[in-house]
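Quick one: structure for this chain?
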Amino acid sequence: AHVQKGIAGRPHLDRSGGGIANYLGTLTVTNSRIADSYGSDGGGIYNSGEMDIESSTLAENVATAAGTYADLDMTDHGATRLRRSIVANSSTTSICHPDVTDQGNNLGCD
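Got it. Here's what it folds into:
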């Protein structure tokens, strides 16, 4: 699947991925904004498949489960590549899962 010029925000869910949840699929997100979303883990995006995020903004998301990541969370099964994107201003200091692959020119996701 491919999300282009998409906007996700304001859902408050008691599940993974308040903005986008990708379970074992392949997803590309480009030129999109995922913000102001709430989820148990991965307030903005939760990924357990293959995902590429390019030229997008993930901001001001909230993960409600302890030990999870506010903007971008994933499982050990998933692979997430981030390129030319902004990840900022979220509820915790841990905004991205440490296994996210930085493919350059990103702001945030430390």
